[in-house]
Amino acid sequence: MSVLVKDVSKYGWEPETFEKIKKHLFPGIVLEVDKGHFNSSILVKMKKRGKELLFSGMVSNKVVERMGLKKGDKVYILIEPKTESFTIFKKD
């Protein structure tokens, strides 16, 4: 699974753009960031349409450091099934 990561606050997304895609995002809380040699495994607890879901994915260590991603952070996940990738947004 490939990973595209964007941090809404650091990359200058306008609030209007974020609001347009927000309905497609899964809000969640980071439960775990397990740092490996080059990549980190993340576990996110999400809630969408009244259902609780667990999401697991791999993210580059550089991205984890740049975003300051840690346990307890509130994030949004955009899952892109056609490309089997996901985008993680962290909003300060």
Give a verbal description of the structure.
Helices cover 15% and strands 51% of the residues. The protein is of the alpha+beta class. The protein has a single domain (2-90), classed as RNA polymerase II/Efflux pump adaptor protein, barrel-sandwich hybrid domain (OB fold (Dihydrolipoamide Acetyltransferase, E2P)). Strands 1-6-5-2-3-4 form a 6-stranded mixed β-sheet. The longest helix is centred in the first third of the chain and has 7 residues, at 15-21. Mean pLDDT is 79; it is low at 1-5 and 7-12.
List the helices and strands and how they pair.
Layout lengths: L1 E4 L9 H7 L4 E10 L3 E10 L2 E10 H7 L6 E7 L4 E6 L2
Parallel strand pairs: 1-6
Antiparallel strand pairs: 2-3, 2-5, 3-4, 5-6
Proportion of β residues? over 45%
Q: Write down the domain tally.
A: 1
Number of helices: 2
- What radius of gyration results from the CA coordinates? 13 Å
CATH topology: OB fold (Dihydrolipoamide Acetyltransferase, E2P)
Shape call: globular
- Which CATH top level class fits? Mainly Beta
Helix/sheet category? alpha+beta
Summarize the main sheet.
6 strands, mixed
Mean pLDDT: 79
What is the assigned CATH homologous superfamily?
A: RNA polymerase II/Efflux pump adaptor protein, barrel-sandwich hybrid domain
Order of the strands making up the biggest sheet: 1-6-5-2-3-4
Distance N to C terminus: 26 Å
SSE order, as H and E?
Answer: EHEEEHEE
* Residues in helices, as a percent range: 10-25%
Low-confidence stretches: 1-5, 7-12
InterPro entries: Mo/tungstate-bd_C_term_dom
Protein name: TOBE domain-containing protein
Organism: Desulfurobacterium atlanticum
